[in-house]
Amino acid sequence: QDLETLRLISKVLPDYCQPISEEAVSEHVFELVFAFDEVITLGYKENISLTEIRTNLEMDSHEEKLHNMVRASKENEARDEGRRKAAAIKAAQREMKEMGGMGNSAMGNMQGFGSGAPSNSGYGNFPE
Predict the structure, then answer these.
(1) Which long-range contacts (CB under 8 A, 24 or more apart) does 66-69 make?
(2) Is the pLDDT confidence value at 106 over 50?
């Protein structure tokens, strides 16, 4: 049984690392670990073939797809929100520039407001 396990592992290595070198193993380390995990589980050899190992490793995870979709959705929402805020800031800056140009001439005409004797508007006048 141990020899059979070693033979299967020796078939997995060239399947994921071609040519077999330290660099190739480093590049495919995660695939190799997952493949070895398919061969040996909890210290016992699984009754599995090389094609079944390939199939299991190529399977897409539903949770992974869902996670990627949620992440992409959040990124798009954040991008759209950033665009809206940037547009609002630009509009506010444009408005301030327009108000700044008009504000000086408009303020000059408003010097009489708020000065002079207090008005008798009825507010704050209480009978004694």
Answers:
(1) none
(2) no
Instruction: Say how far residue 127 (Cα) sits from the centre of its chain.
Output: 66
CA–CA separation, 124 and 70 (whole Å) = 60
More confident residue, 116 or 100: 100
Q: Give the amino acid at 103.
A: G
Residue-wise pLDDT for 42-101, tens only, equals 777 778 888 888 887 777 677 788 888 999 999 999 999 999 999 999 999 999 888 876
Q: What is the rounded end-to-end Cα distance, in angstroms, of the chain?
A: 109
Sign of CA dihedral 22, 35, 56, 54: positive
The string of DSSP letters for 66-84 reads HHHHHHHHHHHHHHHHHHH
Burial of 35 from C-beta contacts in 10 A (0-12 / 13-18 / 19+):
buried
Q: How far apart are CA 37 and CA 22, in angstroms?
A: 20
- Assign residue 118 a region: left if phi > 0, alpha if psi is -120 to 50, beta otherwise? beta
